[in-house]
Specification:
single chain, alpha/beta, six-stranded mixed beta sheet, binds adenosine-5'-diphosphate, ATP-binding, transport
């Protein structure tokens, strides 16, 4: 089970324009937390900081009591640029993630499980395609399959469904709700879509920009899942 604590995060890319202003927040074990707020107010930046991908000098972020400065966080991520390896097929991209945790798993089994995850996101027909042969929505789904297959308790997702048609989007929303509830994974999820946020979230964090950077406010979403 994974919990996150964000303490006193002040952040600026250039030491002039402040992006984040003294952010304090906690993500509880197994919680589905959604970040919302206007474009450009620092949601992706904070998500990348939690993933250990954005260096910072003020404040701290702890995942299970360990600072992301010291310990590379163990998390499945879906970012907007998909970050698939272009020289590997969809299946091999997923196999690579699986292999990181299952170092001794035979290749045949890796291939089989990768195919199952890709089928789960409706890409069973495209496992041999390379990223360059896939549409935006297909790449997004491959990146989601890879993040899920990685098997970490913690999923960090930045508008993972933005490029999907409405039918696929609803299907994957249901899949992610089911996976996070059954497997008690902790999820931090960025979206612009209010309906999506309310459908998915246990709690929503609103980012509100100001001249000293964005501050955050938390709202509980009382839903029965
Ligand atoms: P959001 O996810 O809320 O849309 P971002 O975290 O992507 O916001 O961006 C916050 C601000 O930081 C924006 O003004 C953006 O232009 C700027 N920004 C994002 N990434 C970088 C970067 N690598 N270097 C400099 N500025 C950046
Ligand atoms: P998506 O909702 O996945 O973005 P699209 O409407 O972009 O779907 O594409 C529909 C179908 O067209 C895909 O499932 C895929 O089979 C095919 N397709 C789209 N773009 C490409 C591409 N660049 N290369 C190969 N096939 C593509």
């Amino acid at each position: 089970k994974t919990k996150i604590k964000v303490h006193n995060i002040d952040f600026s890319y250039d030491d002039k324009t402040k992006i984040l202003n003294n952010i304090q927040l906690e993500v509880k074990e197994g919680e589905f937390l959604v970040f919302m707020g206007p474009s450009g107010c620092g949601k992706s930046t904070l998500l990348r900081m939690i993933a250990g991908l954005e260096p910072f000098s003020h404040g701290d972020i702890e995942i299970n009591e360990k600072s992301v400065r010291q310990t590379h966080p163990d998390c499945g991520v879906v970012f907007q640029d998909y970050s698939l390896f272009p020289w590997l097929t969809a299946q091999s991209n997923v196999m690579l993630a699986l292999k990181q945790r299952n170092k001794k798993m035979p290749k045949k089994e890796l291939a089989h499980i990768a195919e199952q995850y890709l089928t789960l996101v409706n890409l069973g027909h495209a496992i041999k395609k390379y990223p360059g042969q896939m549409s935006g929505g297909m790449k997004q789904r491959a990146a989601i399959a890879r993040a899920l297959s990685f098997g970490s308790d913690l999923l960090l997702m930045d508008e993972p469904f933005g490029a999907l048609d409405p039918v696929t989007r609803i299907k994957l929303q249901d899949l992610i709700v089911q996976i996070s509830a059954e497997q008690k994974r902790t999820v931090v999820f960025v979206t612009h879509d209010v309906d999506e946020a309310i459908y998915l979230a246990d709690r929503i964090i609103i980012f509100a920009p100001g001249k000293n950077g964005a501050v955050t406010k938390s709202i509980e979403v009382p839903v029965q899942k």
